[in-house]
Write a structure and sequence with these properties.
Length: 86
């Protein structure tokens, strides 16, 4: 019988997951509602977890000039807060 994933795969994903609960994922998705981010940028911000605007722009060049430094820094802080909150 075919199983879509093994228990070892599930264990690996849980071990290295940056987001420990479904609530944190939902809360982080909510941050990006009504913001002008591309799906690629959202995925990269959530996967790479940059801590500063400069780091985010160096990792994701398409962010440069599209957002205020303060606005982008606030979003990065919200992601970190939601990630650690749940």
């Amino acid at each position: 019988m075919y199983q879509p994933f093994s228990l070892e795969t599930l264990s690996y994903c849980q071990k290295f997951s940056k987001y420990k609960s479904e609530e944190s994922v939902r809360a982080i998705r909510e941050i990006f509602c009504n913001k002008n981010f591309h799906n690629y940028e959202i995925a990269q911000l959530c996967n790479l977890c940059p801590e500063t605007t400069e780091e985010a722009i160096s990792l994701i060049p398409s962010l440069d000039g599209r957002f205020d430094d303060e606005e982008l820094q606030e979003i990065l802080e919200q992601i970190l807060d939601k990630r650690n909150q749940y």
